[in-house]
Amino acid sequence: MATHGANNSPTAIATTGIEMIFKSGSQEVQVLKGIDLDIHYGDIQLLMGPSGSGKTTLLTILAGLLTPTEGKIQLLGQEITTMSRSQLAKFRLENLGFIFQGFNLFPALNALENVELALAMKGTQPDRKARYAEAAELLDKVGLGHKLRSLPRDLSGGQQQRVAIARSLVGHPRLIMADEPTAALDSHSGHAVIELLRRLAKEEGVTVVMVTHDPRITDVADRISYLEDGILLREPPAIHP
User: Fold this and answer.
1) 114: exposed, middle or buried (C-beta count within 10 Å: 0-12, 13-18, 19+)?
2) Percent of the chain whose pLDDT exceeds 70
3) For the whole model, what pTM was predicted?
């Protein structure tokens, strides 16, 4: 189980008054409007809402990849909006994992090599043999111990996403940011992937924040937040005829 922040708060992620304005020439578009959000350690938090509602922008800000126009963000008890670019890069490297809709696997590398490469890029394990052993352990954890030598083209969509999850677990991150991780999967594969993330969250205290349009996976979430026109809603947005 991951330890909590230095202040022993149950909150892994806390945002206060997040605003995001994008400028295009003389035009300004406000994408996020006063977002206050608390996410607890070990929770799976879904961000849902219609296209263009600001979900991916919010996820990108929570991941420290985009600086909000206004507001504060605390990750693991640390204020990331005051960090320098190098401090933030180091914080992300040590604490965050990422999962994408399109898997983003290297097609010429097998499952083991895809995960080993991520370990090499982290730079925490200089010994290649040890990296391969750790990569095999991570793939076994996501149920792919029998597919170590398979290329992405020889894996199903669900299996490719499991490789991507194994890769996101490199370095034992305490936060995982997932952008539409089930969008390319059928119902069975998508649910299996989310159940896997839920098990990791509960057994290892990993906090998962996920943008999704997929209503089939809401039953495995601890909390669901809905966005509409850049505003965080307590209930799902109304469907207009």
Assistant:
1) buried
2) 93
3) 0.85
